[in-house]
Amino acid sequence: MAKVHSYLRDGRAPFPVDPRVSEQMSRIRGKNTKPELALRAALTKAGIRGYRLNYAKVPGKPDVAFVGRKVAVFVHGCFWHCCPHCQPPRPKTHQDFWDEKLDRNVRRDRRNLRALRKAGWRVVTAWECRFRKNPDAVVRRVQRALDAPHLGD
Hints:
Layout: H1 19-26, H2 34-45, E1 52-53, E2 64-66, E3 71-76, H3 95-118, E4 122-127, H4 128-133, H5 135-147
Parallel strand pairs: 3-4
Antiparallel strand pairs: 1-2, 2-3
C-alpha cells in the first residue's frame, strides 16, 4: 500500500492532479542540487578552491562565488531556467501557472546577470545539460573567468 503524505499548501502553486506529483515536487531543492555538487566536485578535482556557496551579498546569490576575483557561477537546471540548448518542454497541466513562473525565472536571471556585470563581476552560467555532456568544458570556462584580468570596481 502506498504511503499517503499530506503537504501544507502555501497557495503559491496549484494543487497537482496526481498526488505523486506533489511528493516529487516536494523533494526538489534550491541548494546542493546534484548538478551543483557535481560541479563543485569537478572544480575540486581541477584544483580550483577558495569559493563561497550561495553568496548572498550580490544579486542572484550565485551557487559558487569567487568573491576576491569577482567571479560568479550559476548552475542552472534546464527545466527551471528554460535552457536555450535543450529546450525542455513545459508542463501541459496548469499551463498558465507554469508559463508565468518559468518566464519570471528567466527575467530574474537576466536581471541578476546585468546587475552582477554592472558591479564588475564575471558570470559563468553552467547549464545542467551542458555540464552533464562535458564537465571539463565548464571547468575550463570557470578557470578562464578566474584567470581574466579584473574588470574594475
